[in-house]
Amino acid sequence: MLFACNSNPNQAKENQVPLPKPAQTRPQLLSDLLLKWNDYHAIGKVDSLQFLYAEKVSFYGQFDLNKEVCVQKTKAILVGSPDFQQRIDSIEWRFGIKDSSKVYCFFLKTVFQKNKPVIYQAYLNFEWNSTLQQYQISNEGDETTDENLEKQVVESDQIYEKGDYNGDSIPEKMWLRLESPTPELHSWSTIRFSDKKIPVLFVENCIWGVPRNEGDLDGDGADEISLIPGWYTSRFTTFRVFTLKKGRWHHLIPGIYCSRFDFEEDLFYSKTLEPGDSTFVWIRELEMTADGNERYVRKKRKIQLKPVWSGKTQLSWTN
After folding, report:
1. Measuring CA to CA, which residue among 143, 140, 116 is closest to residue 38?
2. For residue range 239-294, what is the model confidence (pLDDT) as tens digits?
3. Which of 12, 111, 114, 171 is deepest in the core (most CB within 10 A)?
C-alpha cells in the first residue's frame, strides 16, 4: 500500500470520524485517517492536522504537547522547505490486544527535500475518543529520532572522569562508550577523551563500566585509568589498569581476576589501588571466604608495574 500527498482540499467536517459499525469497517476508517495525515503535510493544508490529533500528543520524543504545538512544528518544517514532499508505504497495522481502543500503525516514510529522499521507519498511535466518537493520533515519531534522543540521554547521563592522562599538565575528561557489536557478536567499548590528541582506548569484552582515574601510579606525570568491565552473562571479570606510553595504550599491571556485583562496586573501588613507588602498587582485593557464604574480606597484595602494549596503536574509527 502506498499513499502520497495530494492537493484535494478537505473541510473540517470531514475530519469528524463516526463510531465504526460494524467492527470490520475499522481498518478502512483508520486507513482513511492515515491518508489524511499524509495529505495534510503540505502548505495550505497543515492546519487541518489539528482535527486528527488528540488534545495531548507525544510528538517525536516530546511528551504531552498540545495539538496546536504539533501543528506549528510541522508547519515550520514545511515553511522552511517549500519543496517538501512525503510518501508512505509498507504499512502495518497492529490492534491492541488488552485495550481495543488503541491501534498502532508502522510504515516507511520517504521525505523529499531538495529532491533528496530520506527514508524513515515511522509510526503513529491512534486512540479512540469515546466522547467525540472518533480515532485520534496520540503519538507520532520515527525510529531515527528515537535513536538520536536515546544517544542524547546516554550522553547527558554519562559519567566523566577528569584527569591528566597524557602528562601535558592540562586536565581532560574521559568516558566509556559502547560500540556497535560486530556480526559475530563480539562486543567491545572504547574509552574516549575530550582532548582529541589522546588516542582512543580499545576495551575488548566490555559492554559497560565506569573508568576511574587512579592518579599517577608510575611517576611519569600522567594519570592511569582503571576499569572493571561488565559483560552480558557473567559477574566474573578482570580488573584492568591502563597507561599511555609514547602515544600507545599499555596494560600497566596484569589483569586481576575479580567478581563484580553492583552493590560491591563502591567498596571495590575504595582504596583498591594504593601507590607504592614507581615500580609497584598495592592491590586490595575482595576474596571470598572459605565457608562458601559469599562473604568477602580484604587481601593486600603487591603488584609489580610492567607496562605491556595493549595491541592497538591507531584505531580505524575517530573520536
Report:
1. 140
2. 888 999 888 898 888 777 766 554 454 444 444 566 656 665 666 555 555 665 55
3. 111
Q: Hey, which residues does 248 pair with through a beta bridge? A: 245
Query: DSSP state, 179?
Result: P
pLDDT tens profile 188-227: 788 988 888 899 998 887 877 888 898 888 888 999 998 8
167 grid coordinates: 602528562
Q: Terminal CA-to-CA distance of the chain, rounded, Å?
A: 43
Q: What are phi and psi of 75, to 5 degrees?
A: -60, -40
CATH for 2-145 (3.30.420.10, 3.10.450.50, 3.40.720.10, 3.30.450.20): 3.10.450.50
Global pTM exceeds 0.90: no
DSSP reduced 3-state for 218: coil
Query: Which residues, in sequence order, are bridge partners of residue 121?
Result: 108
Cell of residue 311, nine digits? 595491541
